Amino acid sequence: MNLQAFPLMWEKFVEQPEFTAPRVYELVVSCVDKYDARKAVQFARQPRLLLTAGTGDFLLSVSRHRLDDGMSCGLCYQLRDRTPTCATASEGAQDAFEKPIDPSIGFVSALAGVLLAAEYTKEIRPEWHADAVNNTARLNALTGKFKAGPRSKDPACNCSSKYVALGYQDVWSR
Question: What mean pLDDT comes out for the span 135-141?
């Protein structure tokens, strides 16, 4: 594996001359939490496959997305960014302002990272691909409830346009 770090926002990274070709991004692994950042990773240069992870209090999710498979994309169920306040934060997040930091929240993020790494490994090792997540897997680390499987597209999401799927196929079906 040849990993390199680039201290740039995704939008600036994909504008560099050596990274502007449309088929450069065969596989993108993303764990950004902000809506605009997820949108940039998914649409600035469409990856063939996008692996994502996210957390929210004790809920974590890992997902894989192609823009022509009829299933949800990385943005379908991502809330638009809001300025965080005590009024908009969940009860668990509100408690975080009043008490010392709970290390279990960090555990949720670490677990999401481990599961995302597992999905990456399944993608690069074809013999393990049969156990790959089919679109989305969600786990509540507090209750242990787990749900996996395809999620339908959000009709209000940009990916629901037939033109997004056609553009994706135009780039990746060559």
Answer: 89
